[in-house]
Structures are given as structure tokens and as C-alpha cells.
Amino acid sequence: MKISCFLPVCALVFIFVSCNKAKEETNLNSEVAITDSISKPAKKELPENFDEFNKKFHSDSLFQVSRVDFPIEGKHVSGFEQYNWTRKNWQFQIIPVGENTEIEEYQHSLIKTDTLITERFWIPDSGFEVERQFKLIHNKWFLIYYNDINL
């Protein structure tokens, strides 16, 4: 009889000791994780530099397609031809965004904020206008709008 009572008591003691040891290890791991997070601040990803992005976007076709947020807003209109932009009909853009333009017949405007850049070229009273917008999304620049009108 003594042996039959002794085994369950031993089992309970063993379970109790194991649970306490697991709890202590969990607490120790939590303390280490908290200490690590205090001593090592989380790396915050800095926003991509627009000037570097601008150079690469207008010189690397694969990079450019990866940074156009398809389906993109805006459209291509040339005479009677009109379509929305897709990956299949995308035309590689080589002219980088710039503060000044060397083409005198065009009007040019550039509006920059920390998260949105809007550039526009047009010839007054001609039916020609190009507008493009780049937006900072998750710290990376993307072309989100491209309107190319030539009537």
C-alpha cells in the first residue's frame, strides 16, 4: 500500500518541480529579451533618398518596372490612341525628375514634399501635358501616377 501512494506523490512532486523550472527559464528568457531590446534599439529603416532613387529609376529598366505601382493611375493619350498603363505596355522613362528643364518651349512645375513628388510638363494651349507622381511607400519611392497626353 505504501508503494502505491508513494508513486503518485512522487509523480506530483516531479511535475511541480518541472513546471517551476520551465517557468523560471521562461522568465529568464523574457528578462534577456527585454534587456536586449533596451540595450539594442530597434533599427528603424530610413526613407530612401529620392535623388539616388531618381537616378536608378531612369537608368535601370528592371528597377523602374519594380517601382511602378501597377495598376498605375493616369493614361497614355496620343491622338485617337488611348490606354491605361500596364506592365505590358509600359514605356521606359529616361528623363529624371529635375528642378530645371532645358527645353524652353515647355512649362514645368515641380512640387516636393517628404512623401510625394509631383512633376508636370506642358505646352500651353497645345494639348500636350505630362504629369507624374512619386510617392514614398514603406520608405521606398514608387511611381504612382503617370499621365501622358498628346492631342
Describe the structure.
It is a single chain. The chain is of the alpha/beta class. It has two domains: 1-43; 50-150, Nuclear Transport Factor 2, Chain: A (Roll), CATH 3.10.450. 34% of the residues lie in helices and 32% in strands. The chain is built from three helices and seven strands, in the order H-H-H-E-E-E-E-E-E-E. The protein has helices at 2-39, 50-57, 61-66, and strands at residues 68-73, 75-78, 81-84, 107-112, 116-123, 128-137, 140-150. Strands 1, 2, 3, 4, 5, 6 and 7 form a seven-stranded mixed sheet that branches. Strand 6 and strand 7 form a beta hairpin. The chain is globular, with a radius of gyration of 31 Å. Mean pLDDT is 82; it is low at 5-14.
Shape: globular
Order of helices and strands: HHHEEEEEEE
User: Fraction of residues in helices?
Assistant: 25-40%
On the 0 to 100 scale, the average pLDDT is: 82
CATH topology of the largest domain: Nuclear Transport Factor 2, Chain: A
Topology readout:
Elements: H1 2-39, H2 50-57, H3 61-66, E1 68-73, E2 75-78, E3 81-84, E4 107-112, E5 116-123, E6 128-137, E7 140-150
Parallel strand pairs: 1-7, 2-7
Antiparallel strand pairs: 2-3, 4-5, 5-6, 6-7
Report a brief summary of the structure:
The chain has 151 residues and is of the alpha/beta class.
Which terms would index this structure?
seven-stranded mixed sheet, 2 domains, 151 residues, alpha/beta, Nuclear Transport Factor 2, Chain: A, 34% helix
